[in-house]
Specification:
The protein is α+β, with helices and mostly antiparallel strands and about 400 residues long. The protein folds into 3 domains: about 35 residues; about 180 residues, NADH Oxidase (3-Layer(aba) Sandwich), CATH 3.40.109.10; about 160 residues, Ferritin, core subunit, four-helix bundle (Ferritin, Up-down Bundle). It is about 55% helix and about 10% strand. It contains 14 helices and 8 strands. The protein has a 6-stranded antiparallel beta sheet, sandwiched between helices. A two-stranded antiparallel ribbon has the order 1-2. Helix 3 crosses helix 6 and helix 10 runs antiparallel to helix 11. It is globular and about 120 Å long. It starts with a helix and ends with a helix. Bound molecules: flavin mononucleotide (FMN) and fe (ii) ion (2 copies). The site of one fe (ii) ion has 7 residues, from helix 11, helix 13 and helix 14. One fe (ii) ion (FE2) binds next to helix 10, helix 11 and helix 14.
C-alpha cells in the first residue's frame, strides 16, 4: 500500500467519524429534546394562575368512573357553555358572531343524583333544564356515533345543536362558518369547566346527524354538531394525568413545596367538622319547635345533605392524596376545629344561632385551608373554594331565617 492510499483511508475514516458524531450530536440536541423529551419543555414563561392551571390540565377523557353526576355539576357545565353572564345586555359565557346565539344545548342524562334519566334542554335565561323525553338514551346515542364506547359509559352527554338561520340571516353564507366556530368556543368552555369538577369529557364530532336529531327529539331546524360525554374521572386518571397539579401524585405535590401530610391532617379535621355539622343540622331538624318551624326544618334538612356531600368530597380528596379519612367517630372529637354543639333548647332561635356559629367556624377553617394549598395543590384549592361558597350561603340562609323570625314577634 502506498503512502497516498494510507493517507486517503485515514482521511476518509476521520471524515466519517466526524459526520457520525455530528449526526448523533444534532439528533440529541434537536430531535430528542424537541420531540422525544416533551415533558421537559420550559413552562417558566407561563405564569401560574387558575386559568393557566386549568388549561394545562385539560385533556380529552374517554374513560369515566361509574358514578353519578349531580344537577349542580350539570348546570355548572351548561352555564359555562351558554349561561347568561351579562343580564343587562343578554350576553353569554361563550362569544357569538353578532350575539346571534345560534346554539341550543340538549343533555341526555343517564346517571345523575337528582335527575331522572331522559333528554333535557338547557334554558339560558333561567339557567335550568327542562325534560323533553324520559328514558336513558346513552346507548342509542353511542350507536349513532360509530359505537364510541365512552358515550355509553358517560353519566350524561351534552349535544350542541345549531339553528343556522339565526346567524345566516345576518351574515348570509359566512354565517355558517361562524356557527361552526362558535361550537368550538362553547365546547372549550365545557372542557375547561370540567377540569376543577374532576369531570372528564371529549369533543365527539363523528356521528350520524339525522339519527342523533331523532334520538334527542330535536326540531328539524336544529342541527346536532357536537356530542360531549361527561363522567367523573377515575381516581387513576386524576393521579396519572399528563401534567399539572390535577395530576399530582403525592411525590409531585412534595416537589412543589406542599406538606401533603399537613394537608391530609387539615382535611381530616374538616372531615370531622362536616360530620358534626351534618348531625347538628339533622337532629336540629327533628327537634326544632317554634315560629316558622316548617321553613326552618326544610332549610336544616337541605343543609344537612350538603354537609354530608362536603364530607364525601373531603374524604375522596384525602384518599386521592394517599391518606385515610378518619375511621372512627370517636376521633372526630379529638380533631374537630368547630366541635359539636348539642341542641339543649329546642326553640328554633337557639338552634339557628348554634348552627350559625358552626358555619362561621367552618368558613374560618376553609379559609385557612385555602391559604395552605394556594398555588400548590390546584384540585384541593378548587374543592375547598366550592365548599366555602356553600358554607357562606348556609350562613346567609340562617341569618335570613333568624331575621324573618324576629319580624314575626
Ligand atoms: C372537531 C373535533 C372533532 C372530534 N371528534 C372526535 C370524535 O368523534 N371522537 C373522539 O374520541 N374524539 C374526537 N375529538 C377529540 C380529539 O381526538 C382530541 O381533541 C385530540 O386527540 C387531542 O387531544 P386533547 O383534546 O386531549 O388535547 C374531536 C376533536 C375536535 C376538535
Ligand atoms: Fe360543610
Ligand atoms: Fe355549612
Amino acid at each position: 500500500m502506498n503512502k497516498n492510499k494510507i493517507f486517503k483511508i485515514i482521511l476518509f475514516t476521520i471524515i466519517l467519524a466526524a459526520v457520525i458524531s455530528g449526526g448523533i450530536y444534532m439528533y440529541r440536541k434537536f430531535y430528542k429534546n424537541e420531540y422525544s423529551n416533551k415533558n421537559n419543555y420550559d413552562l417558566k414563561q407561563v405564569s401560574s394562575n387558575i386559568i393557566s392551571e386549568t388549561i394545562k390540565n385539560r385533556r380529552s377523557i374517554r374513560n369515566y368512573a361509574n358514578k353519578p353526576l349531580d344537577k349542580k355539576e350539570i348546570l355548572t357545565l351548561l352555564f359555562a357553555a351558554q349561561g347568561i353572564t351579562d343580564k343587562k345586555n343578554n350576553l353569554r359565557a361563550a362569544p357569538s358572531a353578532g350575539a346571534t346565539y345560534p346554539l341550543e344545548l340538549y343533555i341526555a342524562v343517564g346517571n345523575a343524583k337528582n335527575l331522572e334519566p331522559g333528554i333535557y334542554k338547557y334554558n339560558s335565561k333561567s339557567n335550568d333544564i327542562t325534560k323533553i323525553e324520559s328514558g336513558d338514551k346513552r346507548s342509542e346515542l353511542c350507536n349513532n356515533a360509530l359505537s364510541q364506547e365512552w358515550i355509553k359509559q358517560a353519566a350524561a352527554v351534552i349535544i350542541i345543536c345549531a339553528i343556522y338561520e339565526r346567524t345566516t340571516n345576518k351574515y348570509s353564507e359566512n354565517g355558517k362558518k361562524y356557527v361552526h366556530m362558535e361550537v368550538g368556543a362553547v365546547a372549550e368552555n365545557v372542557y375547561l369547566q370540567a377540569v376543577p369538577l374532576n369531570i372528564g369529557t371529549v369533543f365527539v364530532g363523528a356521528f350520524d346527524t339525522d339519527k342523533v336529531r331523532k334520538t334527542i327529539k330535536a326540531n328539524k331546524n336544529e342541527e346536532p354538531l357536537c356530542l360531549m360525554p361527561l363522567g367523573k374521572k377515575n381516581i387513576n386518571d386524576i393521579n396519572n394525568n399528563n401534567s399539572g397539579s390535577n395530576a399530582m401524585t403525592k411525590q409531585a405535590l412534595e416537589i412543589v413545596d406542599l406538606d401533603v401530610e399537613k394537608v391530609i391532617e387539615e382535611l381530616n379535621k374538616a372531615f370531622a367538622d362536616e360530620w358534626f355539622a351534618y348531625y347538628q343540622y339533622w337532629i336540629g331538624a327533628k327537634v326544632a319547635k317554634g315560629p316558622l318551624r316548617p321553613s326552618v326544618v326544610e332549610e336544616l334538612v337541605e343543609h344537612a345533605n350538603e354537609e354530608l356531600k362536603h364530607a364525601d368530597m373531603v374524604a375522596e380528596r384525602i384518599i386521592q392524596l394517599n391518606g385515610t379519612p378518619i375511621l372512627s367517630p370517636k376521633e372526630w372529637y379529638e380533631v374537630s376545629s368547630c366541635q359539636y354543639a348539642e341542641p339543649s333548647d329546642f326553640n328554633v332561635v337557639p338552634i339557628l344561632k348554634q348552627n350559625i356559629k358552626a358555619e362561621q367556624c367552618a368558613i374560618k377553617v376553609y379559609n385557612n385551608l385555602l391559604k395552605l394549598v394556594k398555588d400548590k395543590d390546584f384540585v384541593t384549592y378548587n374543592m375547598v373554594l366550592s365548599i366555602l361558597e356553600d358554607e357562606i350561603e348556609h350562613e346567609t340562609d340562617l341569618e335570613n331565617l333568624l331575621e324573618d323570625i324576629s319580624l314575626i314577634k
